[in-house]
Design brief:
With about 150 residues, the chain is mainly alpha-helical. It has 2 domains: about 15-120, Topoisomerase I, Chain A, domain 4 (Orthogonal Bundle), CATH 1.10.132; about 120-150. It has helices at about 15-25, 55-65, 70-75, 80-100, 105-115, 125-150; strands at about 30, 50. A two-stranded antiparallel sheet has the order 1-2. It is elongated and about 90 Å long.
Amino acid sequence: MVSAGRPLKYTSKKKLQEAIDDYFEKCKGRNATDVEGEFIRDKYGLPIIVDAFVPTITGLALHLGFKSRQALINYQEREDFADIIREAKMRVEEYAERRLFDRDGVRGAMFTLCNNFGWSEKSSDSSEEEMLKKMDEMIGAIDNAAKRKAE
Protein backbone atom coordinates (compact mmCIF):
# COMPACT_ATOMS: atom_id res chain seq x y z
CA MET A 1 0.00 0.00 0.00
CA VAL A 2 1.40 3.42 -0.94
CA SER A 3 1.44 5.91 1.91
CA ALA A 4 0.02 9.35 1.30
CA GLY A 5 1.77 12.53 2.31
CA ARG A 6 5.16 14.01 1.84
CA PRO A 7 8.11 11.91 0.82
CA LEU A 8 10.52 11.13 3.66
CA LYS A 9 13.22 13.70 4.26
CA TYR A 10 15.60 10.87 5.17
CA THR A 11 15.40 7.51 3.45
CA SER A 12 18.75 6.26 4.75
CA LYS A 13 19.45 5.47 8.40
CA LYS A 14 23.08 6.35 7.80
CA LYS A 15 22.26 9.87 6.49
CA LEU A 16 19.90 10.50 9.38
CA GLN A 17 22.50 9.34 11.92
CA GLU A 18 25.17 11.56 10.29
CA ALA A 19 22.86 14.59 10.49
CA ILE A 20 22.05 13.85 14.15
CA ASP A 21 25.74 13.42 15.00
CA ASP A 22 26.46 16.73 13.24
CA TYR A 23 23.86 18.48 15.42
CA PHE A 24 25.38 17.21 18.65
CA GLU A 25 28.87 18.07 17.45
CA LYS A 26 27.73 21.64 16.73
CA CYS A 27 26.18 21.87 20.21
CA LYS A 28 29.68 21.55 21.65
CA GLY A 29 30.75 24.83 20.04
CA ARG A 30 34.27 25.57 18.95
CA ASN A 31 37.47 26.92 20.47
CA ALA A 32 37.84 30.68 20.22
CA THR A 33 41.00 31.68 18.36
CA ASP A 34 42.97 34.87 18.00
CA VAL A 35 44.04 36.42 14.67
CA GLU A 36 46.99 34.03 14.49
CA GLY A 37 44.75 30.99 14.95
CA GLU A 38 45.89 30.26 18.50
CA PHE A 39 43.33 29.18 21.07
CA ILE A 40 42.21 31.91 23.42
CA ARG A 41 42.35 30.66 27.00
CA ASP A 42 40.73 31.77 30.22
CA LYS A 43 42.65 32.67 33.38
CA TYR A 44 42.87 28.95 34.26
CA GLY A 45 44.44 28.04 30.93
CA LEU A 46 41.34 26.35 29.55
CA PRO A 47 40.28 27.07 25.96
CA ILE A 48 37.32 29.43 25.65
CA ILE A 49 34.42 27.80 23.81
CA VAL A 50 32.16 29.90 21.58
CA ASP A 51 28.97 29.14 19.67
CA ALA A 52 28.05 26.28 22.02
CA PHE A 53 24.36 25.70 22.62
CA VAL A 54 22.09 23.43 24.61
CA PRO A 55 20.79 20.40 22.72
CA THR A 56 16.99 20.39 22.49
CA ILE A 57 14.40 18.33 20.67
CA THR A 58 13.23 21.39 18.73
CA GLY A 59 16.81 22.35 17.88
CA LEU A 60 17.45 18.83 16.64
CA ALA A 61 14.28 18.91 14.51
CA LEU A 62 15.32 22.24 12.97
CA HIS A 63 18.85 21.04 12.29
CA LEU A 64 17.47 17.97 10.54
CA GLY A 65 15.38 20.24 8.32
CA PHE A 66 11.98 19.37 9.73
CA LYS A 67 9.26 22.00 9.79
CA SER A 68 8.04 20.97 13.22
CA ARG A 69 9.05 19.12 16.32
CA GLN A 70 6.24 16.70 15.60
CA ALA A 71 7.85 15.71 12.29
CA LEU A 72 10.85 14.41 14.25
CA ILE A 73 8.55 12.53 16.62
CA ASN A 74 6.77 11.01 13.61
CA TYR A 75 10.08 9.55 12.40
CA GLN A 76 10.33 7.71 15.71
CA GLU A 77 7.09 5.90 14.83
CA ARG A 78 8.74 4.44 11.72
CA GLU A 79 10.29 1.10 12.61
CA ASP A 80 13.42 1.66 10.50
CA PHE A 81 14.25 5.00 12.21
CA ALA A 82 12.84 4.41 15.70
CA ASP A 83 16.10 3.44 17.42
CA ILE A 84 18.05 6.31 15.87
CA ILE A 85 15.49 8.92 16.94
CA ARG A 86 15.05 7.33 20.37
CA GLU A 87 18.81 7.49 20.98
CA ALA A 88 18.98 11.12 19.81
CA LYS A 89 16.17 12.04 22.17
CA MET A 90 17.97 10.21 24.98
CA ARG A 91 21.06 12.32 24.33
CA VAL A 92 18.96 15.48 24.79
CA GLU A 93 17.34 13.98 27.87
CA GLU A 94 20.74 13.02 29.30
CA TYR A 95 21.97 16.60 28.93
CA ALA A 96 18.87 17.91 30.75
CA GLU A 97 19.25 15.25 33.43
CA ARG A 98 22.84 16.34 34.09
CA ARG A 99 21.64 19.91 34.53
CA LEU A 100 19.57 18.79 37.52
CA PHE A 101 22.85 18.76 39.45
CA ASP A 102 23.84 22.20 38.21
CA ARG A 103 22.50 25.09 40.27
CA ASP A 104 21.94 27.30 37.23
CA GLY A 105 20.19 24.70 35.09
CA VAL A 106 17.81 22.99 37.49
CA ARG A 107 14.59 24.82 36.60
CA GLY A 108 15.05 24.50 32.85
CA ALA A 109 16.08 20.88 33.20
CA MET A 110 13.04 20.07 35.32
CA PHE A 111 10.76 21.76 32.80
CA THR A 112 12.13 19.91 29.78
CA LEU A 113 12.28 16.55 31.53
CA CYS A 114 8.66 16.85 32.68
CA ASN A 115 7.29 18.23 29.43
CA ASN A 116 9.36 16.38 26.85
CA PHE A 117 10.35 13.12 28.47
CA GLY A 118 7.45 12.15 30.71
CA TRP A 119 9.24 12.74 33.99
CA SER A 120 7.17 13.97 36.91
CA GLU A 121 7.92 15.67 40.14
CA LYS A 122 6.77 13.19 42.71
CA SER A 123 4.48 14.92 45.10
CA SER A 124 4.84 13.87 48.68
CA ASP A 125 1.14 14.47 49.33
CA SER A 126 0.75 11.26 51.32
CA SER A 127 3.72 11.91 53.60
CA GLU A 128 2.73 15.57 53.90
CA GLU A 129 -0.80 14.47 54.77
CA GLU A 130 0.53 12.09 57.42
CA MET A 131 2.69 14.84 58.90
CA LEU A 132 -0.28 17.24 59.08
CA LYS A 133 -2.40 14.55 60.72
CA LYS A 134 0.29 13.96 63.36
CA MET A 135 0.59 17.71 63.95
CA ASP A 136 -3.19 17.94 64.43
CA GLU A 137 -3.02 15.08 66.94
CA MET A 138 -0.18 16.83 68.79
CA ILE A 139 -2.04 20.13 68.87
CA GLY A 140 -5.15 18.32 70.10
CA ALA A 141 -3.11 16.64 72.84
CA ILE A 142 -1.61 19.98 73.88
CA ASP A 143 -5.07 21.59 73.94
CA ASN A 144 -6.41 18.73 76.07
CA ALA A 145 -3.47 18.99 78.43
CA ALA A 146 -3.98 22.76 78.71
CA LYS A 147 -7.70 22.28 79.41
CA ARG A 148 -6.99 19.70 82.13
CA LYS A 149 -4.42 21.98 83.73
CA ALA A 150 -6.87 24.88 83.68
CA GLU A 151 -9.53 22.76 85.47
